[in-house]
Amino acid sequence: MTVKTAKRGRPSQLNAERIVECARALLAEQGKIPSIRALSAALSVDPMAIYHYFPNKAALLEAVCLALIEAIHRPAGPDWRTEIRALCLSYLTLLQAHPGLLDTLLSMDGSGPAQVFIARYEQALQPLALPQPVLNDSRDLLVDYLHGYALAMQTSQGKLDLSYLDGPLAFWTRALQREADAH
């Protein structure tokens, strides 16, 4: 009589990148971060195999969000207004493409994804040479506006799109330029 034993250990095709990519796909499909059980089922692995790469769901969540946020605009040009607009549009487009991402970002304990946005924000505004407190306040105001805008886009059923961002963003950039001129 032959007894089949389940193969223990990590499946050879599994790695952290594959887990994150699968979680990203499920997030896009379902609008929320998948459970470890759902993720393991999609990968055809035992749930414990995922814990070899990520010690807990929070670590997996941070890795998935970080992988998504890395795709936002990287400022590289000298025109800070153009760079900020591109950063805002890419961030809102990302949030629009992954409806559960904003809720996930707002509920996270880790700051990795936020640090990516902060670094790119500060890079875009380097030409203004603003003091750090002004950078922080202007960033917080803009991020809160973008998050509200993303929520409004989600609930508007297509009636609100990215084109409506231009007026308020132009107002914000004029105010920031005045602040830079004052320093």
TrEMBL record:
The keyword Chaperone does not apply. Pfam families: TetR_N. Residues 13-72 form the HTH tetR-type domain. Residues 35-54 bind DNA. It comes from the Bacteria. Keywords: DNA-binding, Transcription, Transcription regulation. One of its GO terms (molecular function) is transcription cis-regulatory region binding. This is Transcriptional regulator, TetR family.
